[in-house]
Design brief:
By secondary structure, the protein is mostly helical. The chain is built from six helices and two strands; from the N terminus they run H-E-H-H-H-H-E-H. Belongs to the Skp family.
């Protein structure tokens, strides 16, 4: 299925090219890394992630201490007391796993916060890409940083610097 999609995409590209349509590409990752707001977002995400990782580590440490205490007192406990404490540890493990999933899971709070912080910056970049595309009469503009495989790219067709210029970012 994926090969058919790629074949269709190549067919479309060559169809456009045969009609004299201009095609180019940008590297959105390169553009993002040039933007000062992206560094601020990264710093904020690192701070948020660090706090959440500390919470996760504290939960893990607490569970480890509970296991160590259980092991140390094991000979003094009745079977019922042992099972009760083991049950409490298992509940704490479930809570820790739930925390990790809620925060760092596929649609966790960490990734939601990252998307929330990046959205305004991505909008600015996409708007600049659209303006550059229109100004240069491009029919198709690919993103080199996306999951679409680009086997070869001719630097003549790289419009990343035009987008950086459109955003008003200077070379550092």
């Amino acid at each position: 299925m994926l090969n058919r999609l790629k074949l269709l995409l190549l067919f479309c590209i060559f169809s456009f090219a045969s009609y004299g349509q201009k095609i180019g590409y940008v590297d959105s990752e390169y553009i993002l890394n040039k933007h000062p707001e992206y560094k601020e977002v990264q710093s904020e995400m690192e701070a948020i992630g660090s706090e959440w990782r500390k919470e996760a580590k504290a939960l893990t440490d607490e569970i480890r201490e509970m296991y160590n205490a259980l092991k140390a007192e094991e000979v003094l406990l009745t079977e019922e007391m042992y099972e009760e404490r083991l049950g409490l540890i298992k509940e704490k493990e479930k809570a820790a796993n739930a925390f990790n999933s809620r925060v760092f899971g596929a649609n966790g709070q960490y990734y939601q916060k990252q998307a929330e912080l990046l959205q305004p910056l991505q909008s600015k970049i996409f708007d600049a890409i659209e303006r550059v595309s229109r100004r240069n009469g491009l029919a198709i503009l690919f993103d080199k940083a996306s999951s679409l495989s680009m086997i070869y790219t001719d630097p003549r067709h790289d419009y990343s610097e035009f987008v950086i210029e459109e955003l008003g970012l200077e070379e550092n």
